[in-house]
Prior knowledge:
alpha+beta; single chain; 20% strand; 3-stranded antiparallel beta sheet; Aminopeptidase; 6 strands; elongated
Amino acid sequence: MARARRFAFEQSPYEFALLLRAEAYASCTKLAHRTLLAEENGKLLAFAVMSLPIPGITPQRAPFLVEWAGDPSVAAGLLIHAVQAYGLEKLEAVAPWHEQEFIEAMDGISYQIEQNYGTIHVLSPDHLLEQLRPYWQDQGLSDTNFQVRQEADGTYLLALAGKSHTLTTEEWVSLLFDPVSKADLPAEWKKPLAACFPIPFPYVAGLNYV
């Protein structure tokens, strides 16, 4: 089920079990992992891994969702069940912008918008572009109508439908990862590029936290 997610870290069952047991982030905040499953007629519908309080130990932050997969509405139901079953005053859950069905399933719950954790450092722009091409093509942008090239001065030259436009490194990174991009793009580009940017990226402070 976890591997069926379109946007997620690649994990083997063994790696998933190791990360689950490691409790990398949970242990830093004096919480412990607990996994809840939802099934119907013996069929697994969803699971949710949460970091919850340890009896007798004062946690350093509120309980939080670590990882989930399966039916978004069922997964959201597991969070509600956890709040009730474990008597939680609060349970925090991060929903990346591209997990729209999960966000809709939690409609009516208070929220705040924040950036993903971590610092972005692109070691090889050419390699990154090569890795992104299959995704862009799947979204409808082929090499024949959309191209990106890093220039000698570090800027990025974008070409679309016979026209070109230059972005600074900051604008390029913002176009790649920010739901509200700082990139100054031609108005006629925004609609065709909307299906390809930003790049859906997994939440990095979850099970794969380092």
